[in-house]
Amino acid sequence: MYGPQDPNDSYTVQQSAVDQKTIAAAPVYYDNEMLTPVQPQPAPAEKRRYPKWVRPVMIGLIVLILLEMIAALLLYTHTICIHKWQDATCQAPRTCSRCGKTEGGPASHRWLPATCSAPATCEVCGETSGACLPHTWQAADCTQPKTCAVCGMTEGTALGHQWSAADCETPRFCKICRASDGEPLGHDWADADCTHPRTCRRCGKTEGSPLEHQWLAATPKSPETCSVCGAKRGAALAVTLYGNGYVQTRTGSPLNLRETASTDGKVVATIPQHTNLDLYYFGRDDWYFVYYKTYSGYVSASYIQLGYYEEAAGHDEFMYGYVKTKGGKLNLRASTSTNSKSLAMIPNGTDLVLYWRDGDWYYTEYNGEYGFVSAKYIVLY
Ligand SMILES: [Zn+2]
Ligand SMILES: [Zn+2]
Ligand SMILES: [Zn+2]
Ligand SMILES: [Zn+2]
Ligand SMILES: [Zn+2]
Ligand SMILES: [Zn+2]
Questions:
Q1: Which ligand does the CA of 121 lie closest to?
Q2: Which ligand ends up closest to the CA of 79?
Q3: Least buried of 12, 190, 236, 325, by fewest C-beta within 10 Å?
Q4: Dist. CA 74 → ligand 1 center (Å)
Q5: What domains lie within the chain, and their CATH numbers?
Q6: How many Å lie between the centroid of ligand 4 and the Cα of residue 148?
Q7: pTM for this prediction
Q8: CA separation for the pair 353, 333 (Å, rounded)
């Protein structure tokens, strides 16, 4: 607009050229024949070549351009502004993005309520307010640590189970939560005997009932005795006569040793001809009671050659004495061994009937039990 095409500039140049042309082309006049050249009179100024209305338009244009420049300057410096409003946010009021002018105050936050993991928070700008809510703790248990019921946060570790020992019928279980683990141990059965039913060695549970005693007949040395457990009942045979003799069969065949004093009695052993035997006579003159090896029983008197005999009354069969310990009780044992079963404990000072002596032992009775006591702790009357 203001470059070399400017009509004013070109106008100036053109005018100057016209002046020189006009001068060059002007006729030379001489005055008074003196040939003095007469100075040419400058030509009268030429009239403008553009129309009259151009000048006001030009001026108008220039004013307009100046106004425009002023307006641009004002706009540029934000002295005046065609506002371009941006909505208020929760941090800033309504604001002109051009000039920065504001109107009103910031919008209010849109608060989301506080939780145990976050304080109250504006969902728009993220600003927070206050503190988190407390966690809703659930106590730790066997398998879970202390845990927030709301957010699932945990603290510490689970307590772990407190296992009880497994028993025969129950697997091990947690004493706290009752969870169980593994298998029950199962019973450890001990067979039934004469006095106990089938019994678990571990828990004592029983099944069924005790077995029957297997009673062996009384002998002169022993009352009825259970062949399984050694229990005794009643009294030894009351012997009226002791003797000695040997087997004398007619044919030389062995002699039957029977369980009972009868030819119907079960044969428990056979005794060879001429075997020497101690004889116990107890009232049935056709049978003797004898011991043979590990057996005992009855033999027919018809096949015994009697040697000597004596009356039991004169044999001083029973002895009498009392228990003398250092104060403790004395064991009544099932047999003549300190390893044998203790049938009863006899208090110090107890009077006893001693049926016979067998080595270092006396056979006696206490509270209905028959058995042996060590002779070391017996003082005879
Ligand atoms: Zn503005
Ligand atoms: Zn906000
Ligand atoms: Zn929580
Ligand atoms: Zn548990
Ligand atoms: Zn058991
Ligand atoms: Zn028994």
A1: 2
A2: 1
A3: 12
A4: 12
A5: 240-315 (2.30.30.40), 319-380 (2.30.30.40)
A6: 20
A7: 0.34
A8: 15
